[in-house]
Design goal:
Blueprint: E1 31-37, E2 40-45, E3 51-54, E4 57-60, E5 72-76, E6 83-89, H1 93-99, H2 109-118, E7 126-130, H3 136-144, E8 147-152, H4 155-167, E9 173-177, H5 180-183, E10 210-213, H6 218-221, E11 235-241, H7 244-256, E12 260-265, E13 272-278, H8 282-316, E14 349-355, E15 365-371
Parallel strand pairs: 7-8, 7-10, 8-9, 10-11
Antiparallel strand pairs: 1-2, 1-6, 3-4, 5-6, 11-15, 12-15, 13-14
Helix pairs in contact: 1-3
Bound molecules: S-adenosylmethionine.
Length: about 375
């Protein structure tokens, strides 16, 4: 059991620098992501006195300090002459999404990356996101866009996200505690919000050019967007909904509210595995077929012997119970006990790919739409 499972504190001690800004080496107090395996990535705060415990062994944080991010840390497995290893990675929105403490369902990178490019997100963008949830997409937005206005109506989740964004130095996020479906998106000084109001201002000037709604009822929030979106440019919205009935209802309201170019998209990502396959000669293939035939024949004979032995056992009441056993190893064209490593320079290889049969990336339908509030003022 890894140590972060005991708690979800991901507060780095180096709070003056964002753990998401680039660094070369692992330092005391850093938030680092430990890659144990592809689906086991754990956030840790580097502390020289601590150990990172896995079922394969314990890794001292001390052994990580001073090494480059991405380094492999190896330990000898207790009582065995083998090594276990982990990689220590610097946080990125992509890795954070795979390792974050889940408070809700989250948006994963195949969707978030597609949505951001469809909404033309750039450092010039001001984006609205509701709800914040576990802050997975918020981290991706924060890296790309100029400013993110994020809204969450669940008070505990709001507080947790507030603390997390502060710990991670995501100063371009304004988080507001709000039910956007009933109260809209305007951020006022009297609201529970992290917004820093300039002197004299009583409400934030939002002028968003992109909107992302991950809500159970986006159709209630859509009519309230006009107040906070930019009036003089093309604004994009994406609604993230798991059911087609929700898509239907959202589209009806988007049309009513003057949004156009409506499109529904589903991301069907599949992993392609790339590896090298040994080029075999025709003689090898023929020998393999002959071996299959030979083993089939041997199997028939062995079964017959076993059957005879059972009958004999029954007759002698189990006194002669030594029965023929099946051979353990199969045909190996390189000789018994030989293992050829992929890419071994003594053999010829070709590059092959295999696509996984299942689609694992579908989480929701993405409904996109665009709107220009005041066409006469488009810049
Ligand atoms: C599925 S989660 C969002 C996950 C988020 N996109 C992420 O990547 O981590 C939906 C969140 O929306 C919040 N929510 C639902 N209705 C809301 C509303 N009317 N106003 C604000 N937040 C709302 C929920 O409390 C929940 O935390």
């Amino acid at each position: 059991m890894e140590e972060m499972e005991k708690g979800t504190n991901t507060s780095p001690m180096n709070s003056s620098i964002s753990p998401f800004s680039y660094r070369d080496t692992i330092q005391e107090g850093d938030l680092a992501l430990v890659w144990v395996s592809r689906d086991n990535i754990k956030p840790i705060i580097i502390d020289a006195k601590q150990m990172f415990n896995t079922r394969y062994g314990s890794f001292s944080h001390k052994s990580m300090i001073g090494k480059q991010y991405g380094s492999q840390i190896a330990i000898r497995t207790k009582g065995q002459n083998r090594f276990s290893f982990i990689h220590v990675m610097q946080p990125s929105p992509e890795l954070w999404t795979l390792s974050l403490p889940h408070r809700t369902q989250i948006v994963y990178t195949p969707d978030s990356s597609y949505i951001m490019q469809r909404l033309n997100c750039s450092p010039c963008s001001t984006v609205i996101e509701a709800g914040t949830g576990s802050g997975s997409f918020s981290h991706a937005f924060a890296r790309t866009v100029g400013h993110l206005y994020s809204y969450e109506f669940h008070s505990v989740r709001y507080e947790q996200a507030l603390q997390e964004f502060k710990n991670h130095g995501l100063s371009n996020i304004t988080l507001t505690h709000r039910d956007v479906c009933s109260d809209g998106f305007t951020v006022k000084k009297s609201d529970p919000t992290s917004h820093l109001f300039p002197e004299g201002a009583s409400q934030a000037t939002i002028n968003a050019n992109a909107v992302f709604l991950d809500l159970p009822a986006p159709w209630d929030a859509v009519p309230l967007l006009d107040e906070v979106i930019a009036k003089n440019q093309k604004v994009g919205v994406c609604c993230f909904s798991p059911c087609i009935e929700q898509v239907d209802k959202t589209i009806e309201v988007l049309e009513k509210c003057g949004w156009t170019e409506i499109q529904m998209v589903e991301i069907q990502g599949k992993q392609w595995e790339s590896r090298r396959q040994m080029v075999r000669t025709l003689d090898d293939a023929l020998e393999r077929l002959r071996d299959v035939k030979r083993r089939k024949q041997e199997g028939i004979e062995r079964r017959k012997q076993m059957y005879d032995a059972v009958l004999k056992d029954d007759e002698t009441d189990g006194e002669n119970s030594e029965r023929p056993q099946p051979p353990k190893t199969k045909f190996n064209p390189f000789g018994k006990g030989t293992r050829v490593r992929e890419g071994d320079a003594n053999y010829q290889w070709k590059q092959v790919t295999r696509v996984e049969p299942e689609i694992k990336s579908h989480t929701s339908f993405l409904t996109f739409a665009f709107k220009i509030v005041d066409k006469s003022k488009v810049c």
